[in-house]
Amino acid sequence: MFTTRFEAWIRGQAERLMSVLGRIPVTPNQITVVGVALTFVAAVLAALGYLRWAGVVLIFAGTFDILDGALARSSGRSYPYGAFLDSTLDRYSEGAIYIGLAAYFASMDGPLQRWLLLSTVAALAGSFLVSYVRARAQSLGFTCESGLFARPERVVATVVGLIFGGVVLYVVVFLLAILTNLTALQRIREVWLQGRAQRLAIEREAAATPKGGTTTVTP
User: Fold this and answer.
1) Better pLDDT: 78 or 168
2) N or C: more exposed end of the chain, with fewer CB within 10 A?
3) Domains annotated on the chain, with CATH
4) b or e along 144-170 (b: 16 or more beta carbons within 10 Å of the residue's beta carbon)?
């Protein structure tokens, strides 16, 4: 799966970097907060129409978002609360960027404005659903790793759209609206297949058990 390989490559590069910079006197949670703050700056820049600068700042924000997990793993400071904080603030980061884009599109004129605003809202909903479906599935014991557009791909696509702007940004927003929701549906299907396999296994086990449910043990 391309998504899995892409995420693994990014994590590998980040961990190599942190093995060199592992003595930096900062905590993974501090890096997480700095990354979110940079994302908010990028969102404000996008809302004001400084799209290229927003894309550049978002690159740095994405780098911090990768480095926090790499530092936690390389330094042995990987704790449940850190993972919780990282996931929660990731949602704030994505929400901020989409709100910034929506504010930028709201200042536009022309026939595309309404469709761009709707697409931005759809992309926001899809992005949140992708993360929610995975978290909920894993809390129930399912594996949920599939999908075309996980967070790294969404960040890369958004950066490309911001830096190039214009038609490229419009296409990226339309694609995000479609592919994020498609990814959520792919993950829902993945969990459904696992749930069906689970149910069939239980039914086969029940069918193989003698009626009455008692087993006689001979001393």
Assistant:
1) 168
2) C
3) 2-208 (1.20.120.1760)
4) bebbebbbbbbbbbbbebbbebeeebb
